[in-house]
Structure formats: C-alpha cells, structure tokens
Amino acid sequence: MPLLIKNATIVNASGLLAADVLCLDETISEIGTNLRAPAGTEVIDGSGQYLFPGFIDPHVHIHLPFMGTSAKDDWTSASRAALIGGTTTLIEMICPARGDELRAAYEVWLSHAAGKSACDYTFHMGVPRFDAQTAAVLRQIVKEGIASFKVFLAYAGAFAIEDDELFAVLQLAKQLGVIVTAHCENATLVAAMQQQLLSEGKTGPEWHEPSRPTSVEALGVQHLTTFAELTGAHVYIVHTSCAAALNEAIAARQRGVNVTVEALIQHLLLDKSYAERGDFEGAKFVMSPPLRAAENQDALWEGLATGQISTVATDHAPFDFVGQKDLGRDDFTKIPNGIPSLQDRINLLYTYGVQQKRITLPQMVDMASTQAAQLFGLFPRKGVIAVGSDADLVVFDPQYRGVIAAATHAMQVDYNAFEGTATGGRPSLVTVRGQIQVHDGKFVGTIGRGQLLRRQPGHF
Ligand code: URP
Ligand code: ZN
Ligand code: ZN
Q: Of 128, 306, 310, 332, which residue is 20 to 30 A from 370 by alpha carbon distance?
C-alpha cells in the first residue's frame, strides 16, 4: 500500500528539511510540500517528529558459536529488536573458527537469516586463515554480493589470523576492492596477561580490562595499519574503545593509510567500573576490547564530533547472565565476551549524543546510517531519504520518555547493560521498503520480509 508521511522534519546527514515523503513500490517516490496521496494511500501525520533514514548497524553477531556457548538471539528476535530500536539494516559478522571450511560457514550464516529476518541484512565474511583454497572461495563469495571481509587479530585458537595470512587477505582485498573490517588487539599479549593475572589469583570479571589494556589495543591498531600501509588495502577498525587506539588510527591516516574507525554505543556510555561490580555482576559488562576508564569516552565523542570516527555500531553479542556468563565464574577468561545493545543504540545516541549536544542530528544520521551505507556499498539505496532510495524510514518521537529494562526489551537475553537508563525519544513508526514494521513503538511487521542485500565491491 502507498504510504505518505506528512509534516515531519526530515533529517539526512546533509541537513534538515520540512517536507512530506511519499513511498510507492518499496521506494521513496516523491519528497515535497503538500504532497497529494494517491487513492488507497496510508497517511501518517509526523507533526513534531523527526523522519530519519532507516539506521544501519554495521557490526552485529546473531549466530555466534563462541567461547563454549552460542549467542542467544536468532534472526527473528534480533531483527524485531533492531526494528523497534529504529535499525532497518543489519550487517552480521560471519565468524568461522580457524579450522572451519569457509564456504560451508558462509552458507550456515546465510541459512540462519534466510526467511527469519524482519529487516534487510548483509554480512562481512570472516577470514580466520588463508590457505591454497581461500582466494578462490573468497572471490566467489564477493561475486555473490558480500563486499567486505572480517579479520580478528585477537582470540588466539579461535578466530585469530596469522600475520602471513593477514598480509595475503589484505592483498586480495585490495585487488578486489573489498574493505576489511578488523578486531585489533595483540593476541600474544592478551594471552600472556591473562595467564599472569590468573596465576596471581585474580579471577574475577574486574581483571578482564587489565588483561587487555589500552596499549594492547593500540598495538593491534598499529599492527593492522602497518599491514594496510604496505598492501594499500582499506581497513575498518571495529569497536575502537580508547584514545590510545584512536590516536594510532589517526596517525596512520595522516601518513596516507586508508583507515576508517568504528565506535560502539557501549564504549561511549559505559566505563570499566561496571565490570568491577561485585557478586559477579561485572560479568554482564565483559566484552572485548573491554570497557575503559571514563576519560576515554570524551576522546570517542570528540572523535565522532570531528569526523575522525565514522560509525557507531553495537557489536551486539548477547549471552545470558545466568547459564552463559557464569561459565567464567571462577575464571574471567572463560566469560563469554559481549554486551547486547542492538535495540538501544539509536535511543541512547539521540539522548546522550544529540540532546547533550555532543553531536548534531545530521551527524547522528551520518554515523548511524549514511557512513555505513557508503562504506559497505549500500548507498544510496540505504542511508538517505532521497527519491529512488528504499523506503526504510524511522518516524522518531522526541517527546517520548522511556527507561531501558530487560523486563520489557525485545532482545532474547536475560539482562540489559543499560538497565534503568532514561531515554529521551524513540522510534514511533518504522518501515522496511515501505511496509510498516513498527507502530507506536511495537513490532507489527512480518518476519521474513528482510532481504539479503547483495553489494558490489570497489565503491570506496
Ligand atoms: O566482546 C565482544 N566484542 N564479543 C563479540 C565478538 C567480537 O569480538 O566482536
Ligand atoms: Zn571483536
Ligand atoms: Zn564483533
């Protein structure tokens, strides 16, 4: 059914505009004042509300076998939660372990999403090793529309890649025009620090951060950007948590390295004191890179405001507190790493970024939608309200007042790291290609509406 959204303030990365938006056949067909609705059109009055392009989360985990367990959401629960929170496109990490066959892993990850997602989606292809078959397999996967890779410098024995293999992946990526996303922490130092702390009897979650200090992350960034410099590949540093790592990326960029930086809503708003909470409560806040000393948050916000950091993602990785996080009750190195936040990213970014004047509304759209679309080959289909773009729209009510709670969230996980946090606005209505999926903040959509988005390499 055609859809007309009237009287809202359109917010694109380029600025604000008071206009109506008419959607026909899944795309935006007209933007203007006093638009007339064809017969049978559903008309939404957006007075007093913002109209954003659907938000894109460029870093999520939904199917994730990891640390002896598996992340809790499936595509149905995750896409529903994403849409309630205003995110209309998800980019999931395909995370094969080092011993896995890459093509088989690719098919497993695709099969988990197929027919079960309410929002559109695509993947970054994880590359845990590079052997004689890898180049051919990756070339084929890129031809099938997966225009980005993922490498881990951390998690030795699981996802981590060796240096000679990293060089080969980056060479291939450069050749193919594929961007390489990377988890940057020095795996050797993490393992050594973990052993040292455990041998001193330091077993609680509060020791997770000291086992992977900011210097270890900064070294990871320096390592990756040196490889990028020598291969000419475009690299994208995921979940940058601290000033030291950000500064390494900026230094690399200043000497000509093609490097883009991602921040997470968790690192922007939570600090390491959360992981120091007693009674093992800190385990809820164990992720890698860890939550940091609070002063790093200023550096991240500053990086976003000045454009040194391009995107804000969630790295959504949901593990229950009871039954999963407690695998590490006697040993912090066994706590499954991850802090869920898929549903809350936009409300938090609006409340603590825009309302607190750390960023502007267009900047919020840029870092939570447009940049990801441009970097990962989805623009201008996604990431902008423009004629011809997909009608993925978020009508956002800035008057709404909410409080985040696990009891009411839609994510399939038994805690919320932002429990009790006030939010000053929320998506009231969300569309995916012109179909209303969220109304009055509630999911009313169709599971299975989500499409796999095929992307072309060489867009940056
Ligand atoms: O702690 C995290 N970040 N868990 C998910 C896996 C990863 O490193 O992205
Ligand atoms: Zn990671
Ligand atoms: Zn991740």
A: 128
